[in-house]
Amino acid sequence: MAWRKWAVNLMLLAGSTTLAVLAAEWAFRRMLFSDGPAFAALRDANLYADSFNEADHWKLYTLFGGEYRPPEDPHPLLGWRGAFKAKSLLHDDARSVGNKRPVLLYGDSYAQCMPEVSCFQDLLNNDTLFNRGHHLLNYGVGGYGVDQITLLFEQTFLRYERPFVVFSLMVSDMDRSPLDWRTGQKPWFALEGDGLRLQGVPIDPDPAHYLATHPVTISSYLWRRFLYSPANVLPAWANDRFKGWSAHTRHKQELNTRILDRAIERLKASRVDFVVLVFHYLTPDQQEWMVGREDNWRDRLLRERLAFHQVPYIWSKDLILADPAWTGANLEKYMLLDNGHPTTYFNGLIAAEIRKAVLARAGNHDPRRPLFAPPTYAEMAERTARAIRQDSTWLASVRANAARNGQALEDRITEEAWFVVREQLDVTGEAVRAYTRP
Question: Pairing mode, if any, of strands 273-279 and 188-192?
């Protein structure tokens, strides 16, 4: 009978332990998601999830009141947007291109630039060698992953006449590609056979609704708190198993390889001039990210794909190593150490390389346009201007507006035509319908 007593005691112990763990988890969650200032230190997404691998981290960041909030008016295809129109995706500065050749810069916040530094459009559009025949439009958007950069590029680059494309990414943009949420909901690609299938579009117009219907998947915050704390003394293999490092890395490598191949193949097929620009996050306290080191999967993958496709590229680490001002220890000359973004000085070095790449192709003029290329914005504006001139009612309205504002009629027709292109042509809607077609 002793075995029965032993079994009963074991069951009681297991039951009481389970109840204690459940009670502790319940109490911890109450503290974690309360508004009490006493528990504010617990409300840090880094304590429970990996920002490089898990959308859960970014959902917690939002739920905990992170500084960067979801957009109030999410873009249905891209999630959030930069200096371009929501419908036509026409750049806010598109009319400034005039008869010059547009240089389209795509990327994340490294391309978009920090407010405290001089940005690429300022440096190049005020450069007399560059601006003689070119005008840069900065399509960089903070927080974008390689997937969003690619989607924006695909929807816009062939709508400009003879564009030169600067397709940029920062190396850790590849970590964003698998996520469905960062500082808001975003589109993402799923691996499907040998290709990709876009998921998550159209974007939910209500971020709170999306979070409610796609909640954080963490089952135990206490366990996660242990995993991401200094008290975690598990061996490396166990941490890899529980945190999924290797599995996440393998998925990101395959996913980003396909996305990058798609972007480069589209560039080549479209017969446009282009250069790939690779930014690096650099920080003195993490050796993996330092100048002169490339023993990480991100640098290796990018070097390999760029070599495979034999495309021209700018590598930000190489620019630092080649710069006479580099001492090996003055990283602050190149990077804002509080956020890792380039300084005005480093943007100047990169801008000089962009200028060199653009001017090297200045004489290239291939009059052919791909069969699949949509009309450019300039062509659409000209068509609209002709329609205004041919429509007596519309023309009378435009003439009245011109007289009221003291404008020349042709100037007013041009302004009206660009307004129609910018606001009425729903390129975004067409793209969303294409991606969500059953």
Answer: unpaired
Radius of gyration of the CA atoms of the chain, in A: 26
The domain in which residue 126 lies consists of 94-360
Same domain, 145 and 207: yes
Q: Residues 201-209: contacts with CB within 8 Å, 24+ apart?
A: 201/76, 201/77, 201/432, 201/435, 201/436, 202/76, 202/77, 202/432, 202/436, 203/74, 203/75, 203/76, 203/77, 203/78, 203/79, 204/74, 205/73, 205/74, 205/76, 207/62, 207/70, 207/71, 207/74
Q: How far apart are CA 276 and CA 241, in angstroms?
A: 35
Is residue 88 assigned to a domain? no
| pLDDT tens digits, one per residue of 52-67 | 999 999 999 999 999 9
β pairing state of 195-199 and 188-192: antiparallel
Of 217-221, 309-313, 345-349, 421-425, the range with the lowest mean pLDDT is 421-425
What b/e string do you get for 109-126 counting C-beta neighbours within 10 Å, with b at 16 or more? bbbbbbeebebbbbbbbe
Q: Which residue has the tokens 């890899």?
A: 240
Can you name the residues that pair with 167 across neighbouring β-strands? 106, 276
Q: CA 141, 374, 202: angle at the middle one, nearest 5? A: 50
Q: Which residue spans within 171-290 are E strands per DSSP?
A: 188-192, 195-199, 273-279
Task: Report how many domains make up the chain.
Answer: 3
pTM beyond 0.85: the answer is: yes
**Are residues 342 and 405 located together in one domain of the fold?**
no
Phi/psi for 218 (5° steps) reads -65, 130
CA distance 329 to 297: 24
CA 437 to chain centre: 24
Distance between CA 274 and CA 252 in Å, rounded? 25
Residue-averaged pLDDT of the chain: 91
Residue 390 tokens, joined: 């041919």
* Residue at token pair 């943009």: 173
CB 417 within 8 A of CB 388: yes
